[in-house]
Amino acid sequence: MSVTQQFLLDSYRAAQHGEAAPPAPGAHDWQVVREVRDYGRFHAVVHERPAHGRLRAALRRALHGLRGGAVRSPRPLP
User: Fold this and answer.
1) Is there a contact between 21 and 13 (Cβ–Cβ < 8 Å)?
2) Per the count of CB atoms within 10 A, which of 3, 5, 19, 40 is most buried?
3) How crowded is residue 41: how many other Cβ atoms within 10 Å of its Cβ?
4) Closest Cα to residue 26, out of 42, 4, 11?
5) Whole-angstrom Cα distance, residue 13 to residue 10?
6) Is residue 51 a contact partner of residue 44, using CB atoms and an 8 Å limit?
7) Mean pLDDT over residues 2-31, rounded?
C-alpha cells in the first residue's frame, strides 16, 4: 500500500468516525528536518563540542587532506 492510499484510507475512516482528518503526507517534513538539526546542536552542546559549523569544518578537513598530496593524478594514456 502506498503512502497516498494509506492517507486516503485514514481520511475515510476519520470521516466515518467524525474525527479530524490526518495531515497530508509530507506536510511536516521541514519541521522534522529542523527538529533533527536542533537535536544535533543540543547533543553537541551537551557533549561540550561546538554546536555550529561542525559540518563545514569536517568538509574543510577532508578537502584539505585531499589538497595535501592525497589526490592522485590519472595515469597517462598509452
Assistant:
1) no
2) 40
3) 15
4) 4
5) 5
6) yes
7) 92
Distance CA 1, CA 30 (A): 24
- Cβ 11 vs Cβ 22: under 8 Å: yes
3-state SS assignment for residue 49: coil
Q: Which three cell numbers stand for residue 33?
A: 528536518
Looking at residue 68, its amino acid is G
How many other C-beta atoms are found inside a 10 Å radius of the C-beta of residue 2? 8
Q: What is the pLDDT of residues 22-49, one digit of tens each?
A: 988 888 889 999 999 899 889 888 988 8
Grid cell 568538509 — which residue? Answer: 59
Q: Give the position of cell 470521516.
A: 15
For residue 28, give the C-alpha cell: 511536516
CA 22 to chain centre: 23
Three cell numbers at 44? 553537541
